[in-house]
């Protein structure tokens, strides 16, 4: 009996029964949802405030200004009388507006086509491996890295009719060396487009080159096994795979080209005889040369409207492709 008692005492004590947990308060679904909503707004609030202050306010102010008789004196008085649609009528009845709008279309379309085609050709060229590939790609980026005003001043010297490098070179190879690149109404806009193409080629090449790296090589190999030529492979395989990248390149190129100002001012200042006047330069001249801020705001609003329509079109096309 005693030994049994002793052995029983030597046995380790069993695990203690867990103490009953304290009852938890049930979570209210509404309060949890409210906290999640506040947290979400807390994350996006800085971006919303930034957009409202630095984009929303100037946009609204520009729209209001287009319906006011705004002059330099209103900067001091702070009172600009409302004049209805007088500014809009003045701009639309001005023959220079229609000319600037048409030249903006020519400048934008010509620049986009040139930049994209040459950029795509260079991107395809650099997908092949050869010595100094990386160095050459780096050098092609230089026009994109140089400030646009500097590029405009340099090209103005190159295009000079009497002392320009271009005419001197053309004369040495037996071609006409007295072309008025920037002083002829028929050549000035073409010259500005060529310079803008030169500036935009690197951007197009870099983005399209990155897109080409994502095209699966297996598709090219399969097309080659099927007997497709290089052009057929590029047209039927590469271009469809590049479509999202092409869309991005064209949209960004459009946004930067349609409102261009500094390059035109550096090259021609809108001349000769308004042959290189665009909506961007017209906004500048109305606002800061003629001091007609209401008319300048009208042209600026038209530029914003054109960009917004193009952006909505781009988003709708992408949405349909996603479906």
In words, what does this structure look like?
This protein is an all-alpha fold and 323 residues long. It has 15 helices and no strands. Helix 2 crosses helix 15 and helix 12 packs antiparallel against helix 15. The longest helix has 37 residues. The N terminus is likely disordered.
Short description:
This protein is mainly alpha-helical and 323 residues long. Helices cover 72% and strands 0% of the residues.
Q: What structural category do the secondary elements indicate?
A: mainly alpha
Mean pLDDT: 86
- The poorly predicted ranges are 1-11
Q: What's the story with the biggest beta sheet?
A: none
**Succession of helices and strands:** HHHHHHHHHHHHHHH
The Rg value, from CA coordinates, equals 32 Å
The percentage helix is over 70%
* Spatial separation of the terminal alpha carbons: 85 Å
Strand content: under 5%
Shape: flat
- Work out the helix count: 15
Number of beta strands: 0
